[in-house]
Design goal:
The protein has about 425 residues and is an alpha/beta fold. It is built from 15 helices and 12 strands. The chain has a 6-stranded parallel β-sheet with strand order 3-2-1-4-5-6, with helices on both faces. A 4-stranded parallel β-sheet has the order 10-9-11-12. Helix 4 packs parallel to helix 5 and helix 7 packs across helix 9.
């Protein structure tokens, strides 16, 4: 096996770019993405995801045989001997896995694959997908033989967008390979850049399964807390106070209610559920948790409407400020955000919703969700404020009392705002 690695990273998003930068500190790395605008932006030193700074990008400019080069030309990766695929694996409108990006990436690599090369997948898939879906594509297009001419590994991504503490090199990495020798090689490769260490799984399927249950577990736990929110709302109890009290027990898990979107927690359970159904098992808990979390946007919107009605506020034409549209705090990622569900439901009642989020690109929001955002909230103009995303800038920069008309309220789903910021919190 060639120990002089030249690494091709396919997909330069939230996962691929930080990984490419980490490898580029020690190896020659070529980053590939089909988005020409994205590549041009990176080559000019700008990362729209805000995961990598301009200084970090400059630091890995090619020099003395190492560094990162970004391109939209897949043929430039033909000299690589390790390929790492980090493309998204979304779901379709029927909540079924959409493997189109990973299939296309495999086809592209198949065209340039050479004898001795290793292809490592990081994209989240159901157990078995790498060897059942991707490997046959690589074999068919390259005309090479699996585990004789080329090899495969799987190392699930664990990127946490917006988290500047748990960066890619500080998160323990699960690795695996298609033969014992390749598994050791893949593990050693990642060990060279991951200070937190690695865990070598016995098979590719084990590594795939480990990834998909990580987010499924979080999804189910949050669904339980969301259900508690619904119960305690009916009982007139502050859910966040209940969680604080329960949290005094040493082994109580500190989950909070919320809108569960994004590209991982809101998607991965459907991958596991799909595979389970293929082998004749209908997953009850996984799908129940997903169903409940998918319904939270509508539930929250209706809670706001009920509270407005209880205050004798005219619903049609009422103005509500939506603070945040990203799927999580302190990052610009709007993929699969469930905030949009709240907005659509409120608008169906004739409510006017102003959306404010300084973290995101207004053009991206308009392109993906057909929404026009406000540049700045208007003081004294709103009947309610929905604190949807706990961006730290909201807590520091916004005076909630000035935003609201007298006697109206803030819906703080995360319970992250101090109560003295406003007279009433739902």
């Amino acid at each position: 096996m060639n120990q002089h690695y030249k690494i091709g990273i396919i997909g330069l998003g939230y996962v691929g770019l930080p990984l490419a930068v980490a490898f580029a500190k020690q190896y020659t790395v070529i980053g590939f993405d089909i988005n020409e605008e994205r590549v041009d932006s990176l080559n000019s030193g700008q990362d729209a995801t805000l995961e990598i700074s301009a200084t970090e990008l400059l630091a890995v400019s090619p020099k003395d045989g190492i560094g990162l080069t970004n391109t939209t030309d897949i043929s430039l990766l033909s000299s690589c001997n390790v390929y790492i695929i980090t493309v998204p694996t979304p779901i379709d409108k029927h909540h079924e896995p959409d493997l189109t990006p990973i299939i296309k990436a495999s086809q592209s690599i198949g065209d340039i694959l050479s004898v001795g090369d290793i292809v490592i997948y990081e994209s989240t898939v159901y157990p078995g997908a790498t060897e059942e879906i991707c490997v046959p594509i690589l074999e068919d297009i390259s005309k090479l033989t699996y585990n004789k001419d080329f090899y495969v590994g799987y190392s699930p991504e664990r990127i946490n967008p917006g988290d500047k503490e748990h960066t890619v090199d500080k998160i323990l990495k699960v690795t695996s390979g298609s033969t014992p020798e390749v598994a050791t090689t893949v593990d050693a490769l990642y060990s060279s850049i991951i200070s937190a260490g690695t865990y070598l799984a016995p098979t590719i399927k084990v590594a795939e399964a480990a990834k998909v249950i990580e987010n499924s577990q979080r999804d189910i736990n949050i669904a339980f807390i969301n259900e508690l929110l619904m119960i305690f709302n009916k009982l007139g109890i502050d859910t966040h106070e209940v969680l604080k009290a329960a949290g005094t027990k040493w082994n109580f898990l500190p989950f909070k209610p919320g809108l569960v979107g994004g590209h991982c927690i809101g998607v991965d359970p459907y991958y596991l559920a799909q595979k389970a159904k293929e082998v004749g098992y209908h997953p009850e808990i996984i799908l129940s948790g997903r169903k409940l979390n998918d319904s939270m946007g509508i539930y929250v919107a209706n809670q706001i409407i009920k509270h407005l009605v209880g205050k004798d506020i005219k619903i049609k034409g009422a103005k509500i400020l939506m603070l945040g549209i990203t799927f999580k705090e302190n990052c610009p990622d709007i993929r699969n955000t469930k905030v949009i569900d709240v907005i659509k439901e409120l608008e169906s009642f004739g409510v006017q919703v102003d959306v404010y989020d300084p973290w995101v690109s207004e053009d991206e929001v308009k392109k993906h969700y057909q929404l026009t955002m406000v540049q700045k909230p208007m003081n004294g103009q709103y009947q309610s404020v929905f604190h949807a995303v706990a961006h730290i800038s909201f807590l520091k920069d916004i005076d909630f009392k000035k935003l609201l008309n007298a006697g109206v309220f803030v819906y703080d789903i995360k319970g992250s705002l101090p109560i003295d910021n406003f007279s009433e919190r739902l």
